[in-house]
Amino acid sequence: MIENKTIAAISTPHGKGGVALIRISGDEALSVAKRVFKTKVTDISPRKSYYGEILRDGKVIDDGILTYFKGPGSFTGEDVCEICCHGGIYVTKCVLESVLSQGATLASAGEFTKRAYINGRLTLSRAEAIGNIIDAKTDSQLALSSSQARGTLSKRVEEIREMMIGLLAHAYATIDYPDEDIDEADTKEMLSTLTSVVSSLEGLKKSYRAGKAVCEGVKTVIVGKPNAGKSSLYNMLLGENLAIVTDIEGTTRDIIENTASLGGVTINLADTAGIRDTNDLVEKIGVSRARERIEDSDLVLCVFDYSRAESYEDLSILDLVRDKSAIAIINKTDTPRGISLDFEEKVKESFKRVIYASAINTQGYEDLARAVEEMFDLGEIDLSQDAVISNARQSASVCVALDEALASYEALSIGQTPDIICASLEKALASLDMIDARGASEEIVSAIFSRFCVGK
Ligand SMILES: Nc1nc2c(ncn2[C@@H]2O[C@H](COP(=O)(O)OP(=O)(O)O)[C@@H](O)[C@H]2O)c(=O)[nH]1
Ligand SMILES: [Mg+2]
After folding, report:
1. Is residue 363 within 6 Å of ligand 1 at its C-beta?
2. What is the pLDDT of residue 1?
3. Residue 204: what pLDDT?
4. Closest CA to 376 of 217, 145, 198, 144
């Protein structure tokens, strides 16, 4: 799998900037760099930066800085040279061309990181996390991916793995002496270790709810009767006046969508037409889309108007969201009460979480953020320290590992033979190993790295 070609690419974004960085990795990295980059110093030492001139076809085209990282103590594990030049689009392209003309091959998407993984510098989950750092758009996405990139998840996986290997060694030792069953003391000890394995795996499995809410985001829809303040709430959550707000009923028709961060949870937020019976054809379509969107969402924010008496539309909304994960928002609490105490009580009975808000002065924002955080288990997790599963691939591995660990526990506790106990444990281990991809197929590994940009 290891290729020895020396590769190069522009690692900074395509565009005009102060500086650009061209990265070279492979056995020939230093010799290629030296043919392109002329400095007064003859001996280039690792981890030092050198000023010099950059040549193409023997002519100086720019000046800049060269840094050399000797393998295996580099990002990729190979010899790496980084040339910083002025950050123009054309000049950067010329420097890259010069590097390629001196024997380097253009790197493919994610190839530097893939080499780091192949050379054992990164586990797969850490490599994925580096991709997530680059994609992060919120504080919580950054905290989570930065922690996982430093190996928080890999460390936890390794701990569970070691427990499993200890158990397997123990059980196999018994298989080697076929006359012997696992004795009572050993069984007790193994059951206790298996309990730790199971509870660690359960913890990881559970963490996916929070990890997913942070990384992928939660499909969220705002619903309510016309003029309840849905669009105002939408704007408040996004911190921008994006949706049109008026006191004319039926203002919002199309669904409008955007992404916001609320209490650390990434919400993919949709504002909808107010739910009501209407003869206006366009509004009718809007209302039916709003109803469909409720079905399709993981979180529904139901807005009720504090300033007006409730109507049949409010009651119909209670029905619409009966089986959904929903939060009630009683809006316009800056105005005198119009809503009846009875209906308010009914809302409290129907929803586990009720927030009193005023979208025009951002009152209730913090309460809503805490409620959403709690709903998606973020309250219990320290994103910058805890091992958290953040994608479907990792989650699938953990779920299978957990099922097999439970099967193994069951087998051991009812006195099954060691081979049966080991068969489940081996499957659990193989599945867990997929997280950091010991033994993942080339296809999976390539698919993961192709998500990266060229130069990473
Ligand atoms: N006093 C007060 N007025 C609000 C509040 N939220 C929205 N409004 C007003 O209610 C009207 C309808 O708001 P809008 O957001 O368009 O409601 P939508 O039809 O549910 O999207 C507008 O005139 C808003 O300014 C609030 O919290 N307090
Ligand atoms: Mg609206």
Report:
1. no
2. 42
3. 97
4. 217
Residue 426 to residue 216: CA distance in whole angstroms: 31
Q: Which two tokens stand for residue 197?
A: 């394995």
What's the CA-to-centroid distance between 254 and ligand 2, angstroms?
10
Whose C-alpha lies nearest to ligand 1, atom 16?
Answer: 245
Identify the architecture of domain 218-359 in CATH.
3-Layer(aba) Sandwich (3.40)
Assigned token pair, 247: 């006191």
pLDDT of residue 253: 85
Domain boundaries, the chain: 7-122, 127-213+387-436, 218-359
pLDDT at 244: 87
CATH topology of domain 7-122: Gyrase A; domain 2 (3.30.1360)
For a pocket test of ligand 1, which of 222, 232, 240 has the largest count of ligand atoms closer than 8 A to its C-beta?
232
**What fold characterizes domain 127-213+387-436?**
Four Helix Bundle (Hemerythrin (Met), subunit A) (1.20.120)
Residue 450 is predicted with a pLDDT of 81
Percent of the chain with pLDDT over 90: 77
pTM of the predicted model, to two decimals? Answer: 0.84
Q: What is the pLDDT of residue 3?
A: 56
Distance of CA 192 to the CA centre of its chain: 33
Cα 197 to ligand 1 centre (Å) = 52
Res 180: pLDDT: 61
Give buried/exposed letters for 130-152 (b at 16+ CB in 10 A, else e): bbbeeebebebbbbbbbbbbebb
Strands 299-305, 326-331: parallel, antiparallel or unpaired by DSSP? Answer: parallel
Please indicate whether residue 359, judged by its CB atom, sits closer than 6 Å to ligand 1. yes
Give the chain's residues under pLDDT 50: 1-2
Residue 56: strand, helix, or coil:
strand
| pLDDT, averaged across the chain | 92
Asked if 371 and 327 count as a contact pair (C-beta separation under 8 A), the reply is: yes
